[in-house]
Fold each of these.
Amino acid sequence: MNDNKHDKTHLETQAAIARLERFSKLTDSSIGIPFTKFNIGLEAVIGLIPVIGDAAGLILSSYVLVEAQRLGVSKRIKTKMIINMLIDFVGGLVPFFGDIFDAFFKANTRNTRLLKNHIAKQVKVKSIEH
């Protein structure tokens, strides 16, 4: 593979990961709870609106999946991401307890970590092959 193309792909991947980490922090842990070390994100706040908030959270979460698709991630990893998204959505539908569940589950952070780990393994495999 051409080194310039490889460098461009690597830089694009790094940029996507950086965007996803910022997105995950915003949606999952950007708001500190006073007098605790616990953080919630915008998704937990939006989730307080019954059903509509949970649907909006699911739509927001799809951004991580779109980036994974764009990066060419395997179907297996995307399936795990969808499962996390559905767990977060369905768990969030339960009145009161769903809101607490949303604050703890942090699907976007989980999915970003899944993506980062998958990419790290791919990079390791490619470096061994070359």
Amino acid sequence: MAKARVPAAVIAAGGLVGGYATARFTKKRPLGGVVLAAAGGVAAKEWQRRAGGKAAAALSGAYVAAFAGSHPLAKKVGAWPAVLGVAGVVGLASWAVADRRR
């Protein structure tokens, strides 16, 4: 029986949302960072496996940029809309580059 794999897009988007939710609800920002970093690491491994090193590097850069960009965006649209927006962008990019081929 084949093992079902979670799409890298879900891991990456979930890491951004889960990292923020963890930090917000536990009031422990470092714990949110752990969630963010762990999901980013898993996603990067999947990107490498599915699409190669250049794609993994580009998507990892997008993941970090999304995290950083969500902060100033949150000042304009609110925290949750910012996090959900950047998670959607990263998830879509991941799907287009690494998951769509499956």
Amino acid sequence: MSVASAITVREAALGDACDVATLLDVLGYPCTREEAGDRILHVRQDPRQHLLIAEIDGMACGLAALDVRFSITRGADLARINALVVSPHCAGQGIGRRLLREVEGIARRAGAVRVEVTASAAREGAHAFYQCCGFSDGSQHLIKRLGD
């Protein structure tokens, strides 16, 4: 059996809070186990949001978060990947691609017409990964922080 076939993907549960916190930290968004638990509960209460955990042999090795929302400009639902991360010690095993397949399946079942993702300009490896998986450059993403 190949590593790729040993990967399982499922919706995150409250008991995954420690793993979610660890993986978000890898992505550069540290949070405590308690904060991760709150985030999991928030996502689970909204049927248009999903938080997926990828596992190999029962050990969390990646996550993907997405939401489906209506776009006034497109006149249709879009799926947006808010986070996708693979544990560094599991890189290169097909986990990111498997998570993307699951995300795309959720998006299709929800009737979304496209999947969007934003990756920091500094994450050149992420850009290459997404382009290799069929994503193309889109509009520039600008942000303004509120309350800082």
